[in-house]
Amino acid sequence: MVTHNLDEAFEFGDRVLRMENGCLSPAYDRRPAQSHHAVNGNTFAPARAASLPTSRDNRKRTAMLTLTDEQLDALLAQDVPCGDLTTEVLDIGEIPARMSLRARDPMVLSSAEEAARLVELSGGTILMKLTSGTRLEAGQVFLEVEGPAAALHRAWKVAQTLVEYSAGIATRADHLVKAARSTNPTIAVACTRKNFPGTKEISIKAVMAGGASIHRLGLSETFLAFANHRRLLKEPVEQWVACAKAQIPEKKVAVETDNVKDAEALARAGAEVLQLDKMPVADVAEVVALVKRLGFSCLVAATAGSTRTMPQTMPPRAVRC
Q1: Which of 43, 58, 183, 214 could form a disulfide with 29 if both were Cys (CB 3.0 to 4.6 A apart)?
Q2: 205-216, pLDDT tens digit by residue?
Q3: Helix axes 149-181, 112-122, angle to 10 degrees
């Protein structure tokens, strides 16, 4: 974080330095002393408790993630490439109509903004809409629109299906987050970058709507050495880990492993994230205990496919129109 406000720096930082005339020196907090504590002669702001996203935060985050009109037009073109034959043959396209979308089962709403925009792009008008990240009860309406029947029929199935699949991911993410935090309230649940090609934006939005985070957006912004990478390396682990850390000092060096002994070797070599691949729970606990006992600062990430029993109607029949 970059800031020019010392009060803000002391609020977020454990140690604060001040640069003046090209020189660095310790900065001292001049706010009331009763709210701070001294360490080694310097005054620091107290650490704040970790704050996890709430359902309101999820709505705020996901509302900002929307597909572009160009992407939405492409979705419409896939379903209605050359007009709506049924509506045209029945000659009902100009009749004023109203459409509402509602949840069939309790679910976490996702892609509601895109569904509404699909209607607008087709020529309809939004009467009411809820925000992605909202928890819905069975039967609850989340989108109500009006317009010419041709416009609503053009957007209907694309909007419905988009919400069904997106909400399915969001609801599953929400269940996993709740299950994990029932044991550890501060745990982070992150989703893999694996998704059906062409659906990344929707998948990311759905994961965030469900209260989870993103493990990796792709290969460009994170370093994660898998077994297939490590088989090609000839240098000792300490050497290539140190080299990687030197090349990307602002990023974490993460390495995947599937056994306790290798995890310890990687931690000793300086790996900053140990990604434990499908390891038994007892082994994961052993690695966590080992990291704490030896005083390593690396993060332990347990990875595996996770499932949770969900209503069989979602998707693909999660939304009633």
Answers
A1: 43
A2: 999 999 998 888
A3: 170
The helix, strand and coil proportions of the chain, stated in percent and rounded to the nearest 5, come to 40, 20, 40
The pTM assigned to this predicted structure is: 0.72
Q: Which two tokens stand for residue 136?
A: 């819905």
Banded model confidence at residue 57, pLDDT cuts 50, 70, 90? low
The letter for the amino acid at 112 is: A
* Identity of the amino acid at 127: L
Domains assigned to the chain: 6-44 (no CATH), 55-183 (3.90.1170.20), 222-303 (3.20.20.70)
The residues that bridge with 214 in the sheet, in sequence order, are: 191
Average pLDDT in the 283-292 region? 95
Confidence of residue 297 (pLDDT cuts 50, 70, 90): confident
Amino acid at 86: T
Number of Cβ atoms within 10 Å of the Cβ of 152: 25
Taking alpha carbons only, the member of 123, 114, 110, 111 closest to residue 71 is 114
Distance (Å, rounded) from C-alpha 82 to C-alpha 212? 39
Both tokens of 48, joined, read 């704040």
Residue with tokens 């062409």: 198
How open is the CA angle 300-301-304, to the nearest 5 degrees?
145
